[in-house]
Amino acid sequence: MVSPYRAVPPLPTLRTFEAVARKGSFTRAAEDLAITQGAVSHQIRALEEFLGATLFHRLNPGIELTAEGRMLLESVRTGMDLILRASDRIRSPRQVGVLTVAAPGAFAMWWLVPRLGRFAARHPQIEIRIATMDYREPDFERDGLDAAIVLRPSGRDLRRNELLLLRERIFPVCSPGFMTGDKPLRAPTDLARHTFIEEDSEPDSPFNWEFWLRRLNVPHERPISRLRFTHYGVALSAAIDGLGVALGRSPMVDVELSAGRLVRPFGKKVACMAPDVFALAWSDASSKDQRLIAFRDFVLDEACGCELAAGPCGAPPSPRDELDEERAGARAMRRLAVGA
After folding, report:
1. DSSP-assigned letter for residue 92
2. What's the predicted TM-score (pTM) here?
3. Which fold has domain 11-89?
4. In angstroms, how far is CA 276 from the centroid of its own chain?
5. 95-167+278-311 has which CATH code?
6. Please, how many CA atoms are within 13 Å of residue 222, restricted to the half-sphere of its CB?
7. What does the pLDDT look like over 49-102, one tens digit per residue?
8. Could you tell me the pLDDT band of residue 323, with boundaries at 50, 70 and 90?
9. Is the dihedral of CA 49, 52, 56, 61 positive or negative?
10. 282 three-class SS
C-alpha cells in the first residue's frame, strides 16, 4: 500500500520554518538552530518549492508570514507537540535513578539550581547531583559525569553529543540606589565616578570593564576604584549589596532585575552578546539513558522559555506563561532538532 505520508515535507525544513516564524528573522533562527543563515534560507526556499507557495513576505526590514505560512505554522506546531507528548509518555517508566551533571559555578547558582524544583516535580524518581566545574573541560569517565554544561565559541559548530542552550547578553547593572543621590548614574560618562565590580577576565573581554569603557567612550584620567572577584556569583552579590556597578549576564541576572534588586542604568540599548554559548554535553554512555533525555528536554524547555517554564531564574510563572500553541510548538521543534 502506498504510504499516505509520502507528500509530507522533510522534517528539517519544517523545523527551520517554525524557528523562522517564531524568531521573526532568518538570522535569529540560524542562531537558535546553530546553523548558518544561508542554510536557513536554502531550507525555506526548498519548503516553498515543495509546497508551491510563498510562506513569508520578505519586507525591508523583516519578514511576515503569508496566509499560507500561518496555516502551515499552526499545523506544524500542533503535530510536533503531539509527537513530543507521546515520546514523553513512552520514556517516563524508564526514567529512574541518579544523574550527575557538571556546570560552571555561576551558571549552576544563578540559572540551573533555581529551576531544579520544577524538574523534581516533573520527575520525582530522578535525583540530580550537581558538580560545579570551572576553567576546565569535563572528563565524563574520570569525573563520573553523565552530562555537563560547557562553554563553546559562538558561531562554531558544536561537537558530537552537544546541544545549544543559550547565549548570554551582557550589560551594566547596579543597585537602584545608584540612580539617585550625590553621584547619580544617568549616563555612561558618570561611570568613572563609581566603583567597578568585575570578575577576573582579559581586558578585551566583554566581561571586563576596560572593554566597556572603550565601547562607551568613557574618559577616565584618574585610576578607577575596582572590586575584582574570581567568581561571578560573588561579584553579582556585591552589586546587589550596592558596592558598585557590575556587568550583568542575562538570563542569570533576570530575576534580580524583575525583583528590582538590580537595574539597568542605561536601558536595553547598552548591551552586547557574550563571545561564547552555553551548551549541554553528554557522554556516549549516557546518550540513550532516559534520565539524561529527561534532563536534556527539561533544560532545553527552560532555555527557550517554553511550556510553563518558571520565570527567569525560578521566578513564579505569570498567566502569560500558560501553555499555548506557539510555546508548545517551539519546544517541540527544538527537542526534535536533537535527533535530526
Report:
1. G
2. 0.65
3. Arc Repressor Mutant, subunit A (1.10.10)
4. 12
5. 3.40.190.10
6. 6
7. 999 999 999 988 889 999 999 999 999 988 887 787 677 666 655 556 789 999
8. very low
9. positive
10. strand
